[in-house]
Amino acid sequence: MNHFSVICENEAATITLAETMALALRHGDLVTLKGDLAAGKTTLARAIIRSAAADQFTEVPSPTFTLVQSYEELPFGSLTHMDLYRIEDGSEIEELGLDEALTKGVVVIEWPQKANGFLPEPSIAITIEQNAVESRIFTFQGAQEALNRIERSLAIRSFLNANGHENSTRAHLTGDASSRAYETIIPKKGENIILMNAPPMADGAPIQDGKPYSQIAKLAENMRPFVALAQTLAQQDFRAPHIYAQDLTQGFLLLENLGTDSIVTDANQPIEQRYLVAVETLAEIHQKKWQSECPMVDGITHHIPAFDREAILIEVALLSDWYAPYKLDRQLHVDEKEAFTTIWNGLIDQLESTEKSLVLRDYHSPNVIWLDGAKGSSRIGIIDFQDALIGPTAYDVASLAQDARVDVSVDLETKLVDHYCLIRENFEEQQFRQAYAIMAAERATKVLGIFVRLSKRDGKHGYLSHLPRIEEYLRRSLSHPMLADYRNWVENVLHKQTAK
Fold first, then answer.
1. CA–CA distances in Å: residue 486 to residues 26, 347, 483
2. How many CA atoms lie within 13 A of 425 on its CB side?
3. How far apart are CA 141 and CA 123, in angstroms?
């Protein structure tokens, strides 16, 4: 069994290790803690719970007598803390609700040896040995995937220590639909900053012309595009986060914290004035001249790819490969799929002469920060741009005006598109509006497929709740005369058969 050890010289180091663990735990993990009396099992468990709760004052009583104590609304779900010291027979574990607890989140068990033969294999098995009066040796064994998470979290702590954050506290911030995750770094003094944890993307299996999906869709496979685009946007006076420290090999960045103020209300409703400012910022971006080559400080140049036919076709294929089978309970027939591809090839032909510029690619409410007190485009903080392309300007306008995470009314969508057109200079409005209809349909088509894929492939079922909104956006876009063939395909293939 794979294993590694960590030495903690005192209780403060143990608490830091617990924080490191808490940020690496995932829903369904079973963590077991072995060690003699007073070895530090409860100290570690208590610190894990407090770190996951981001509250060092959370009351965490020992479950020695109650046997089970649960904590809710943590980043990975619930955490159930069990102490088996007082059980007399291992079969008693069934009465403690272990199976149900694992479906709700993470379970941490002290004295697991008391239930030998009745516990599933732990994700992470920790043995604690007393090395001196305060010093402890923590030996980790378990599933390789879980151990990899712990080791990566340890590497983040080393990265922080190497960049002047030895005494900073880490707290979970968010993950996104990709492999990226974010933490808030809280120093003893000064402003909070953000850690981006984005391991280099491993190439998937080749699916077309010997290339994996990520290469065909022109997705960033490491952090270099983010660093290059952050620098490029800042040079053009747009508000991207400043980068304080980086380890591009491991995939760690320390970023300026632009804050948490959004362009939506606490109830997730769009704030019209802020959306209008956000679309004004897009208009400014699209008025700029962007070079496809972005030099970086290390002498390497990042090339911004083109949003070409290959990329668009692989994106819309997410609907035919994932959403359509989900909707129809069957795979598409060959003729249905061929018709779908033919339609999209024709729509892409219509984009050949449309205006092209920098396409940020995910310009919507989760990635737009409102900077109150600033002026002009500086009021809009942009935090997601590593997958940027050179492509139709209409794409990002559609990304905002048909926000995948927010219900944008027809009225507000119309206002945003009209306002964008009004403030653009040297602008072919009719051509843009045609491209807008196509790119809005393209984005809705892609997102429907992505959200089903996130559920079916990755177990992120919450994304399915967004499908009705995206279906409505696609319906709106299909009303444009340019999309008549696609509208007919959707009606004849997706809507004329039994659907979920």
1. 41, 9, 5
2. 4
3. 8
Give SS3 for 319.
helix
* Burial tier of 435 (Cβ tally within 10 Å: 0-12, 13-18, 19+): buried
First to last CA, the chain: 45
CB burial string 104-142: b at 16+ within 10 A, e below: bbbbbbbbbebbeebbeebbbbbbbbeeeeeebbbebbb
Please give the backbone phi and psi of residue 246, each rounded to the nearest 5 degrees, phi first.
Answer: -150, 145
290: which residues sit within 8 A by CB, 6+ positions away? 232, 304, 357, 358, 390
CB-count exposure of residue 65 (10 Å: 0-12, 13-18, 19+): exposed
Query: What's the predicted TM-score (pTM) here?
Result: 0.90
Q: Dump pLDDT digits (tens) for 391-447.
A: 999 999 999 999 999 999 999 999 999 999 999 988 999 999 999 999 999 999 999
261 touches 402 (CB < 8 A): no
- The token pair at 101 is 């607890």
Pairing relationship of beta strands 389-392 and 356-359 according to DSSP bridges? antiparallel
Neighbouring-strand partners of residue 185: 170, 193
486 and 495 in contact (C-beta within 8 Å)? no
- Sheet holding 3-8: strands in order across? 3-8, 136-142, 124-130, 30-35, 105-110, 77-83, 68-74
Return the closest-CA partner of residue 79 out of 109, 57, 59, 55. Answer: 109
Q: Interior CA angle at 71 toward 67 and 73, to 5°?
A: 160
Instruction: Assess contact for 93 and 84: CB atoms under 8 A.
Output: yes
Residue 226's pLDDT band (boundaries 50, 70, 90)? very high
Q: At what angle do helices 334-350 and 309-318 cross, to 10 degrees?
A: 140
Please state, in angstroms and rounded to a whole number, the distance separating the CA atoms of residues 45 and 58. 12
